[in-house]
Amino acid sequence: MNLDANYRFNGFYDEMLAAAGRPRPAYRRLYEQLNRLGPDELQRRHGLAIQMFRNHGITFAVYPDTQGTEKVFPFDIIPRVIEAGTWRRLEQGLTQRLRALNLFLDDVYGRKLILKQRAIPPEIVLSSSLYLREIEGLAVPHGIHSHIAGIDLVRNEKGDFLVLEDNLRTPSGASYVQANRYVMKRILPDLFAGYPVRPVEGYVHELLRHLRWLAPKDVDEPTVVLLTPGINNSAYYEHLYLAKQMGIELVEGTDLVVDDDHVFMRTTRGLRPVHVIYRRIDDEWLDPIFGRQESLVGVAGLVNAYRAGNVAIANALGNGVADDKAVYALVPRIIRYYLDEDPILPNVETFLCAIDSDCRYVLEHLDQLVVKTVDGSGGYGMLIGTTSTKDEREEFRRRIVAAPRSFVAQPVVSLSVQPVLDGGTLRPGHQDLRPFVLTGPDVYVTPGGLTRVALKPGSLIVNSSQGGGSRDTWVMAQGEHEERETGA
Amino acid sequence: MLSRNATSLTLFGRHLERADHLARILGVHVALALDRTDEPGPEFWVRFMELAGWRGSDTGQRDQAVEMVVSGSLGPSVLASIAAARLAAQAVRPTLPTELYEQINTLHWRSREAPWQRDLYPFLMDVQMSIRLSDGLLEDTMFHDEARDFVLLGKFVERAANVTTVVTRKSAELADTPEDALEWTAVLKSCFAFESYQAHYGAGVSADRVIECLLLDRALPRSARFSVSTALEAVTRIEGKTRNSRPMKLLARLNGMYLAANTETIAEHPLEFDAECRALLRQLEVALRETYFHPSKVPATVTGEEGRGMPQQQQQR
Q1: A232 at the B interface (CB within 8 A)?
Q2: Which residues pair with A454 in a beta bridge?
């Protein structure tokens, strides 16, 4: 009996199965291999994978969770396959989007032409709580603001990719891309047979190359560090993984000191200069002089050193304005304004509560929409209208009326599904995709990115903080495989 | 190297050594209790608890003593030491070989889930052998550089203190009689040195030779003298040729103390020897902090530490 004999199609676009027993072309060989292994063996190997994650220390923290820092990131062993042609288009779309967003950030913190020419409503941008007036006019190295971005993509009911969110501040998850591949290669090597899967290991080398490129001009051998909030942070595994793979120091705020607008780290042999900081600390906590005075994780005087050009910080400060969910709705217009091109990747339709007509519509259709706070992340602070209670909708109604600028709403996207292994049987699980885009001397897009899967039955939320997990993402290399699979 | 990393590496070495030491002395004492023809009284376990670092404990029962030394959280215990070593390793994970971290991480999880109440001996053996494996990974896969030297520093200073305490306390308790030979054998086993002793010294177990072997032998890695001299070599390498820091001076003094000591003096005044050794180790702790762990006089922050927050940064997940 096939694994999908009792699979219940739920009306969403299924990336793997066109119908019962009929895998889509790209998945055909994988489907055969999975059936050959059978449910018990797959379940056993899933157990081995989880054990590997735990032994390897690939864990994360969910703050309200009582298990603290010791939760293994849930993992599904059925990989996602993306064909070369599809990926090429995604890569082009992501490159285009990041080019435009970088030009936008440089403009809104500089000459503000897009606002002066009212190509987009200036009040939406300037009223963003993530817009930092303090850094207006600050020249950043090479004019690049978003060095590391994570763009969340979803597939709709037709299978088309849409951009759901831009993450331009401290996007997390690149290490899980590597970890998933590491585990898959060891637990299910047979599955790779016949698939020209593009490797993902190049990301850390590219990341280091991009970071070194940011160093002040007079520094030949820059010291690059990764600044972490510390061991209790939910993404600490990612921080240490990236630092280790790049061979750079993983520092905490107390390891750094600023003297005369130069940044140093405290070593056993005294102070050593630091030239580039890949920070994984939010803007407001980065420097207690600049942001929140009570910050224990920041470095006093860091922003002044940055302003003096003695240290580069990636990502640049103030990027939040470009991933504000209200500004997200304007990105297609931003692309057209700066690049004079149509967006390759469309957005999800978005209603801005800051605009009266949109706000009225949202309030009248709360039970049909997904409402989000403009500066939220991690799947927190959302209302999913279709599954909400009357009380929850009333609560959101009150909050929207009180602060309309703080909310946007979108139709419930029919997020695509792919089978997940659940106790030896398959059931559909919604998923998204977060590719990572590095912008520097050139633009680099990770082949694939992190596929996040909603592992709770029926859930649409893929965030790890809300019960989501991940799976390996296989981007096919160009070549005969693509033609063979699609033509089969 | 980052000062914070130096601290964590030293703690990593120290806590692993402590876990190993506690597992070993517990196993030896549980076996020793069984070897005795009479049921050991509360005094036996009270003395054991002292030896394990639970000062002032009045635990006179085997099961309580075992539970506290395996899993206690208010004093030195095997599980707490492993957890502390793992925490220190987490803080310096980019510096440690992946396999070494995984070894400590899996030991942590395995030991938390082990049915040690039922199978104490396999549990203790697993702890000891896992730590041996970690030692091997450290030596074989890591650069022999400053990072390794800080681990060695933590490990061998801890070992010197532990061995000195075991030997001097037992010297104060036991007589050099055939009746106490069993206890002296246990002392050697507590320090993982019984077989080496037999091979090197032979001719039966006697108090003076045990003191000679465990405190003053220059070639046995389990001896206090060897440990101090290894710690001194590590600091010398960390310092390079040009510096003469306070940790180096203190370790040189400690080394000199073991070089100058003889078995008769120690056997006559064991607790004084231990006290002198501990006084120097306390000074060393302070000196290490001032020299390597917090060497910069530049303040880390502008405002005071009071009321400062440690936010959970919102990583975009």
Answers
A1: yes
A2: A468
Whether the Cβ atoms of residue A203 and residue A245 lie closer than 8 Å to each other: no
CA–chain centroid gap for B234, Å, is 16
Indicate whether B306 belongs to any domain: no
Q: Domains in chain A: how many in total?
A: 3
Residue A294 lies in a domain: yes
CB contact under 8 Å between A271 and B314, yes or no, is: no
Residue B277: which domain range?
Answer: 144-294
Residue B225, pLDDT score: 97
Q: Residue A215: what pLDDT?
A: 95
Q: So what's the ipTM on this one?
A: 0.73
Q: For A294, which of B146, B307, B317 is closest by C-beta distance?
A: B307
Average pLDDT over every residue of A413-439: 92
- Is residue A284 within 8 A of residue A320, CB to CB? The reply is no
Question: Distance between CA atoms of B172 and A474, rounded to whole angstroms?
Answer: 68
Q: Contact A297/B4, CB-based, under 8 Å?
A: no
Asked whether residue B238 is domain-assigned, the answer is yes
> Residue A233: its pLDDT value, please?
87
Residue of chain A minimizing CA distance to B293:
A268
- Specify the pLDDT at position A62: 58
Give, for B28, the enclosing helix (H) or strand (E): helix B3-35
pLDDT-derived band at A194 (thresholds 50, 70, 90) equals confident
SS3 for B243-290 is: CCCHHHHHHHHHHHHHHHCCHHHHHHCHHHHHHHHHHHHHHHHHHHHH
pLDDT at residue B284 above 60? yes
* A167 interface with B at CB cutoff 8 Å: yes
Take residue B257 and report the two structure tokens written for it: 């103390």
CA pair distance B68, A144, nearest whole angstrom = 57
Q: How confident is the model at residue A63 (pLDDT cuts 50, 70, 90)?
A: low
Structure tokens at A471: 């799976």
- Both A431 and A405 in one domain: the answer is no
Give the total number of structural domains in chain B: 2
Determine phi and psi for A384, rounding to 5 degrees.
-100, 100
Assigned domain for B311 exists: no
Are B20 and B124 members of one domain?
Answer: yes
Residue A321 lies in a domain: yes
A250 to chain B: which residues are within 8 Å by CB?
Answer: 93-94
**Does the beta-carbon distance from A252 to B4 stay under 8 Å?**
yes
User: Does the pLDDT of residue A241 top 60, yes or no?
Assistant: yes
Sorting pLDDT into bands at 50, 70 and 90, what band is B313? low
Say if residue B188 is in the same domain as residue B118: no
Q: Report how far apart, in Å, the C-alpha atoms of B287 and of each of A267, A362, B158, B245, B290 are.
A: 16, 65, 16, 9, 5
Domain edge (last residue) among B142, B167, B185: B142
Residues A256, A322 share a domain = no
**Does A301 lie at the interface with B, CB-CB under 8 angstroms?**
yes
Query: Are A267 and B3 in contact (CB < 8 Å)?
Result: yes
Quote the domain boundaries for residue A241.
217-310
Helix B146-173 to helix B42-51 angle (10° resolution) is: 150
| Within a domain: A79 | yes
- Whether residues A367 and A435 share a domain: the answer is no
Lowest-confidence region among A243-252, A465-474, B304-313: B304-313
Phi, psi of B239 (to 5 degrees): -70, -30
**Do A153 and A60 fall within a single domain?**
yes
C-beta of residue A68 within 8 angstroms of C-beta of residue B83? no
Q: Which residue from A244, A269, A281 is facing B94, i.e. has the nearest CB?
A: A244
Q: Is the pLDDT of residue A118 over 70?
A: yes
Q: Between A338 and B241, whose confidence is greater?
A: A338
* Cβ atoms within 10 Å of B55's Cβ, excluding its own: 8
Residues in chain B: 317
- Set of chain B residues whose Cβ sits within 8 Å of the Cβ of A295: 308-309, 311
Residue A6 lies in a domain: no
User: What are A135-159's pLDDT values in tens digits?
Assistant: 999 999 999 999 999 999 999 999 9
Distance between CA A5 and CA A344 in Å, rounded?
A: 38
Closest by Cβ to B295, choosing from A233, A266, A379: A266
